[in-house]
Hints:
Layout: H1 11-23, E1 27-29, E2 35-38, E3 46-53, E4 70-76, H2 82-92, E5 98-103, H3 106-121, E6 126-131, H4 152-164, H5 169-181, E7 183-191, E8 209-212, E9 223-226, H6 230-244, E10 252-259, H7 265-281, E11 285-292, E12 301-309, H8 312-319, E13 322-324, E14 327-329
Parallel strand pairs: 3-4, 3-5, 5-6, 10-11
Antiparallel strand pairs: 1-2, 2-4, 7-8, 7-12, 8-9, 10-12, 13-14
Helix pairs in contact: 2-3, 4-5, 6-7
Amino acid sequence: MKKIVNDTNQVVTEMLEGFMEAYGQAYEKLPDVNGIVLKDRKEKVAVVIGGGSGHEPMFFGFVGEGLADGVAVGNVFAAPTPNTVYEVAKAVNSGKGVLFVYGNYAGDVLNFNMGAELCEMDGIPTKTVLVCDDVASAPRDRADDRRGIAGDVFVFKIAGAAANKGLSLEEVARITEKARDNTRSIGVALTPGSIPDTGKPTFTLADDEIEFGMGIHGEPGVQRTKLMKADELTDVMMKELLQDLPFARGDEVCVLINGLGSTTLMEMFIVNRRVAQILRELGIKVHDSDVNSYCTTQEMGGLSITLMRLDEELKEYYDAPAYSPFYIKKG
């Protein structure tokens, strides 16, 4: 697959250089590690996010006012190093502690935990919230084994707002966990993405096939079927989501339709239309909808649907203003 790159070994370095050329007035690139932090930070609990590259604008796109304070960036589809995690946390710590929030992947868990241990040795208190919203990646009785996908967006948003309010590390972690526990996602792939280093597809699908539950690194899904019409596809995805929490009549939710890289807004809005119809029929109120490509897999075709169930506390933090170049919430 064609890529506009120079040296495939330098894509992350050069990507971050380009990001800083565009937005360096608001961000600082840490020396010697692939970490970016917000320049204008408050004296509060610091929120640090991170993960592998290749999912842009996830993860650096969610560092900003009312969002995360810093991000540890890994190589393509690879976890950031423990030292990167440590250096980012050390840079943003104001004495109130650091909350790590990231997707539930073995490499990320290992390296963030090692980074947290380095922080604790430095006297920096930390807590961690793992995002595990992908209902297709493990059954309900093993929900802790689930992967984190586009539900990151809602969980990061809540974490940043809670920290911005000046709450303690324990309270910010509790509210972030509540957001995580009320968030469910499911994705479907139509075409593969690729890794710049190889230029080859991460998996293969026939022209008339789709795969339910495909992971954002190309992990196998749970079912491969023939391509179907948008409403039928949405119905199948929503059935899986709605029964998992389960969502019920009278609930209030936020909706995210997330494109995986090459999916058009036209397709995503068609799906969002059907999602809204289903929720209306079930008596579930939509507090807010977002249709965008936030958590991508290079040029993968497909999308995910995310629902977050709200209560009054979560609604307060979701509605709080936030800004980054890639995510805006006016409040």
